[in-house]
């Protein structure tokens, strides 16, 4: 399927089979760093502890229970 638009194949957002509109969607990822310091040496060493969980947030305009706002 060369040249096909892959966005047309995406499934819309739904919760337990009930579709809903999205106004805004954002993702954030981060990594923690640890400083290793030694009392008998100058300077310090930085080590990564790995990636944190991916955080996904979405704004969903609901009104009157599950009906989308107009």
Query: Low-confidence parts, pLDDT < 50 over ≥5 residues?
Result: none
Mean pLDDT: 77
Shape: elongated
Strand order in space, largest sheet: 1-2
Compute the separation of the termini in Å.
Answer: 37 Å
Question: Helix/strand/pairing class, anyone?
Answer: mainly beta
- Return Rg in Å: 22 Å
Q: In percent terms, what proportion of residues is strand?
A: over 45%
Work out the helicity level. under 10%
Topology order in helix (H) and strand (E) letters:
EEEEEEEE
Biggest sheet details? 2 strands, antiparallel
Please, could you describe this protein's structure?
This protein has 70 residues and is an all-beta fold. The protein has a domain of 45 residues. It has no helices and 8 strands. Strands 1-2 form a two-stranded antiparallel sheet. Strands 3-6 form a two-stranded antiparallel sheet.
């Amino acid at each position: 399927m060369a040249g096909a638009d892959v966005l047309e194949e995406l499934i819309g957002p739904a919760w337990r089979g009930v579709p809903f509109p999205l106004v805004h969607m954002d993702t954030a990822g981060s990594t923690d760093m640890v400083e290793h310091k030694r009392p008998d040496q100058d300077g310090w060493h930085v080590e990564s502890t790995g990636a944190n969980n991916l955080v996904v947030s979405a704004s969903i305009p609901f009104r009157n229970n599950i009906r989308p706002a107009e």
